[in-house]
Amino acid sequence: MAALNRAVTLAASALVLITSAAGAQPSAQPDPRVEDYYRIIDIPTPEGVELEVGGLAVLPSGQLAVSTRYGEVWMIDNPSGERGAPYYRLFANGLHESLGLAWKDGALYSAQRGELTRLEDRDGDGVADRYETVYDWPLSGHYHEYSFGPKVAPDGDLFVTTNVAFSDSAWWRAESRVPWRGWTLRINDDGTVTPWAAGMRSPAGLGMVDGDFFYSDNQGDWVGSGFIKHLEKGDFSGHPASLAWTGEPGSPLDMTADDLYDIVDPRFPAEGETPQMLANREDEPLVTLADVAAKLPATKLPAAWLPHGILGVSTSEIIQDDTGGGFGPFTGQVFVGDQGRSSITRVFLEKVNGVYQGAAFPFIEGFDSGVLRLAWGPGGDLYVGQTSRGWGSTGPEPFGLQRVVWTGETPFEMKAVRAMPDGFEVEFTRPVDPESAREAGYSVTSFTYKHHPVYGSPVVDDRQETIRGAVLSDDDTRVRLVVDAPRRYYVHELKIDGIRAAGSGEPLLHDAAYVTLNEIPAGRPVPENDWMEVRGAGDTATATTAADTVSPDAQNAASTATVPADERRMTTLPGGWDGVDATLSLGTVPGMQFDKTELRVAAGSRVALEFNNNDDMMHNVLVVAPGAADRVGQAALQMGLEGPKNDYVPASADVLAHTALVGPGAAETIYFTAPETPGRYEFVCTFPGHYLTMRGVLVVE
Ligand SMILES: [Cu+2]
Description:
By secondary structure, this protein is mainly beta. About 5% of the residues lie in helices and about 35% in strands.
């Protein structure tokens, strides 16, 4: 190795920083912003119309059909507003929570709770005059028994997915109470149904990619994180509730929940056991979905994991860019909505050994409400249908209809990341500055998720991978990273720090990719003497995420004593305390809020804070310095993989005390000493997207 004059090894394990590069090559303009390339534009909604979007479909006429959770279908002429204001007409109503819409052969199709319905306007007056049941299915009546879809298969069949029910008594664990809950169904116009795949939990997103059916699922019990997945007939996606019906006629699977329980202890709560006790059991062996697949071959792995908290929290619609360049440089790629985070993620998919896998990238956020549905407009703009009632979302509005428009400028982004026999190849949307490619810091961290009955999974078994070298393509558009030992089935976080576009010198709009590696392609590794010169192993640092950042406010407030990081979460009575002076209790209410907006304690008192998470999603509580809630909430968003690993608690001196991330139905009590200085301190949940609404004031008096 040392003899090769052009070969340079990168740091053995550490993130390579670009301190000198950043100083040597200042950017000529301010950092680029997403809105320089993609703009979010409102589509006006008439007064009085509660457009809680459940489904979107664009008709050949260019009209946009919108179905709502109230059961209406609106037909919008001129939705992009190019010929004056959009015009809304009520096309159909009386449906039961329509959560999808598709156009096929002159009719609209919608999944209501209990059936797939065909809506037709036979007399041409612009209003549906025929509502026809294509196929219906049983319901138990549980609130969460949503039905989603349809999507149209290349042969005209219609895919529908069904949500499971949840048991309040078993801490939100899913149940399939009637046949085909938790399934994907393939339905023909003649009313015949083919149970297609099992193992769904909350399958709100459906999409067709190159003619193949994909669906997305949401983190929860037996689902470590959100993902998108290619579903073929007979696939099992991982959640056992649906397997109650594999004995029914037509089931393409014959496995049972016990087959899964033989591999993973289902750990139903014992008498007196709390969710937190269950979640905290540390003797649990690491079993991943890939481990399950090794024993139960029907198990299908995600094409792309969308790491929870980093790329969203509740995955929704999947749509492939078929605009032929009308939406920018991502033709053929996939966009995935996120309801809770009010955002859209971008995914590059490739097939290796016949198996889909891909790289997920942040794309855009900041929508009015929760992003549920996506559809392409005739001009290549992306319609975004939104709703949040009962579910909560970062976008504060109860509903929304907006569109994303490409400005015509090409952002400097990682366009694709492909698996290589010896690592990864990053393709950029524009040529890179070769000098900056040599100076850049590259890091690859692999990790996975547990497949277990507890709600969600922490990031587990994470490891910094050794990058041995890099190769820049002749046209400067691709950098190949030689990684010592990429791990099959793991997600690889790939970060590039300091690379710049040729000419303009601008940095990447987004610096991270999350690459799911189901298959490692065969092929020839790059010879060492082709590796380019990159920065040496000496220039490394790992302290960026571990170091405390002290805000100017915290520094200036000399009276605000900072608390050492290892004393910010005390879950047992601190040594020397013979009791507490005050016990505060805090709970949650739906819609990402605490049940109190103000708590009061005496300065210097010994406090127990009992946090009960009676919600159906994960939350934490941080007690922070006066005025610091926004700052700390934003810092949590910037943590990347460190977020889920550290309960989204940023290393900030603004943080005085905090809980861990507390799962649904679980609780945690923390102990802290109230500040000596009276003031209006704040408490806030820093789970990504929550800090704007989930906060309150701790009055110290
Ligand atoms: Cu929260």
